[in-house]
TrEMBL record:
Annotated keywords: Kinase, Membrane, Transferase, Transmembrane, Transmembrane helix
Pfam hit, one: DAGK_cat
DAGKc domain: residues covered: 108-237
InterPro entries: ATP-NAD_kinase_N, Diacylglycerol_kinase_cat_dom, NAD/diacylglycerol_kinase_sf
Protein's recorded name: Diacylglycerol kinase family enzyme
Organism annotation: Streptomyces echinatus
Any GO MF annotation of the entry: kinase activity
Record-annotated membrane-spanning stretches: 26-42, 49-66
Length: 428
């Protein structure tokens, strides 16, 4: 609160010397930068070049204005104060009401664990970290996939169950993990996640150490069990997200795997244009129409911007889908999204139990945990609460999830007021 007061005081003190100019120029620069980014993404040729120049020139122009007007020091101090405000506010709210961890229960040591490992996943993490040798030393049977053959990992998992496996595990990407997790849930067997993929979002939200995949194997000898939700899209399981629209169309392209950024930039003008096929959705009975992109997650992320990657989910057992709808059709709407964030008219953020996606086409592109698929419409997303038993090590680093700043709660915390939670607990 002191940092917020300090930021306001700096601007008030400089009111006669350009305080309003600082605030106005900063806001205008943000809007112009957002408009430039939209032109860059939604067009080709000269307009794309103009958009790139605008996106770069806007913040530079604001800095030049502050410097020539002798306002750079005031702008810097004000920015530092606001930055300190947000950092301190998130820390205060996190400490005052820490997210209750997912409940872990004691788990017996598996007798016949079977682990499926992809040697190509994550740039060869299976071999680099010696995962096969370590797993076999702990008594696990390892099925090493052949990189030259596209395997049916679900069939391999079912065969392992038929042969007596009492645990299924995967060292691979999130898409592969989801397929084996579905088999584990079907037979009510514990599931072991070994973070040998590229990003390992599911492992991160389970609190696993993504820098040391071998530590995940400690669960075989000293583990505990978490009950988490499992997403379902048209009968197929997912552990993280299902994407429809722009992102799903990009992922479909064969060249995407080799050049993600280049493929996305090349396709964006077509996918964001006026003639692009839009999506309609029904979210728990409420209609959401004409969306360019729709993202559905297994439990909601902390904030809307975290759907895109690197974001975190406080829980995986909340029993709700996270839903993000995007509809941006002009530079003005892009600027509005940049300024107003989740309050923008172009962004829909909600939670749901059931999401039904429809389109004028009989079949649409769908990206399930990053895997490119095509599904007949309508496509229904739902959740299987507590369907998956996940075996994790007792010693895992966990994740720190900063919650969005709630200024009302922050003020209540500052003045020492308390409130009762729905569970009957007292908090600031």
């Amino acid at each position: 609160m002191l940092a917020a007061i300090g930021a306001a005081a700096v601007l008030m003190r400089a009111l006669g010397q350009g305080g309003l100019l600082i605030a106005g120029a900063g806001l205008l620069g943000l809007m112009v930068c957002a408009a430039g980014l939209w032109w860059f993404l939604a067009h080709r040729g000269a307009v794309r070049l103009l958009g790139a120049l605008t996106a770069v020139a806007a913040p530079i122009g604001v800095l030049v204005l502050f410097t020539q007007g002798g306002l750079w020091l005031t702008a810097l101090v004000s920015s530092l104060c606001w930055g300190g405000t947000l950092v301190c506010a998130r820390a205060a709210l996190r400490v005052s009401s820490p997210e209750r961890p997912m409940r872990a229960t004691a788990a017996p040591r598996p007798v016949r664990p079977v682990l499926i490992m992809n040697p190509k996943s994550g740039g060869g993490k299976v071999g680099r970290f010696g995962l096969v040798e370590r797993a076999e030393d702990l008594g696990a049977r390892v099925i090493l996939l052949d990189p030259a053959v596209r395997p049916d990992v679900a069939a391999l998992a079912r065969r392992a169950v038929a042969e007596g496996a009492d645990l299924l595990g995967v060292a691979g990407g999130d898409g592969t993990q989801a397929l084996v997790a579905a088999v584990a849930a079907e037979h009510d067997l514990p599931f072991l996640v070994i973070c040998a993929g590229t990003r390992n979002h599911f492992a991160m939200d389970l609190g696993l150490d993504r820098t040391a995949p071998v530590r995940c194997l400690d669960a075989l000898t000293d583990g505990e069990e978490l009950r988490v939700d499992l997403g379902d899209v048209a009968g197929r399981a997912f552990v993280n997200t299902v994407s429809f629209g722009v992102y799903a169309d990009v992922v479909q392209r064969p060249e995407y795997r080799d050049d993600k950024a280049g493929t996305a930039l090349n396709l964006m003008p077509d996918l964001l244009g006026e003639e692009v096929r839009r999506l309609d959705a029904t979210i728990d009975g409420t209609a959401l129409s004409s969306q360019q992109a729709l993202l559905v997650s297994n439990n909601p992320y902390v904030s809307p911007d975290e759907f895109a990657g690197g974001g975190r989910r406080p829980r995986l057992d909340g029993g709700e889908l996270g839903v993000l709808g995007i509809r941006v059709e002009s530079a003005a709407q892009a600027a509005d999204l940049a300024v107003r964030g989740s309050q923008s008219t172009g962004l829909t953020v909600t939670t749901a139990q059931r999401v039904e996606v429809t389109s004028a086409a009989g079949e649409i592109a769908v990206a399930v945990d990053g895997e490119a698929l095509r599904m007949p419409t309508p496509v229904v997303c739902s959740l299987r609460p507590g369907a998956l038993r996940v075996l994790v090590p007792r010693d895992r680093p966990g994740v720190v999830v900063p919650e969005p700043v709630n200024w009302r709660r922050l003020l209540r915390l500052a003045v020492g007021r308390t409130e009762r939670t729905p569970e009957g607990e007292t908090r600031a």
